[in-house]
């Protein structure tokens, strides 16, 4: 029985595209970035990925109907710029075997399309308030890092692993001979969705793929999230003296 299926509505029209992945994860940064690009560039939906490895629930939409867990594939043809293929979705696999199976299926698409580059997008949770999120980068080869630094990506970070499809696609891509980069938005980790970090990552990715993004839809959400973070920070500061007094130690030795 096939547990992961890719169903295309039609054949791909793109040639040697940039392949961009962003699925649900920490702060939903990956999914938010890629779905925002799809919505604001006129990219066309071309297919879906479904899998028995996805979590066992259905999403409830704004109009109170249900939507099954899936990943959606889009393509964007451009006459004077490089074509783009986008993968976004509201969930990832819930098992290690599932992650590898889905990633392998996706890499088969990347290989079939002879993609010129793989870009994966995710979040890096810090466990504390992040007022000015940075965009961290990891590449398949060190030589390409200088060009990304010019776009605002920093490689001075403590990221030790990239969990899920974002990491697997980069690793599998390197093994199959594809150049790739993963961009990770710094985020507290306790926000269900982090629009501020999403915006910072979008600014980087739009330069990578040469698109123009209208950020007006994000502005209100960014302001709301910053208000929440300020409240959390004030709460932590008010609780800190009590914790220090009870522990007798100003260094708690952990983040959380």
SSE blueprint:
Blueprint: E1 4-8, E2 18-23, H1 29-41, E3 44-51, E4 58-60, E5 66-68, E6 71-76, E7 84-89, H2 96-113, E8 117-125, E9 135-139, H3 145-149, E10 153-154, H4 165-175, E11 180-187, H5 195-209, H6 216-247
Number of strands: 11
Average pLDDT figure: 86
What's the CATH architecture name?
Answer: 3-Layer(aba) Sandwich
The assembly state of the depicted protein chains is: single chain
By secondary-structure content and strand pairing, the structural class works out as: alpha/beta
Low-confidence stretches: 242-256
Question: What characterizes the major β-sheet?
Answer: 9 strands, mixed
Order of strands across the main sheet: 1-3-6-7-2-8-11-9-10
Radius of gyration: 19 Å
Summarize the structure.
This protein has a single domain, classed as PAC-like subunit (Rossmann fold).
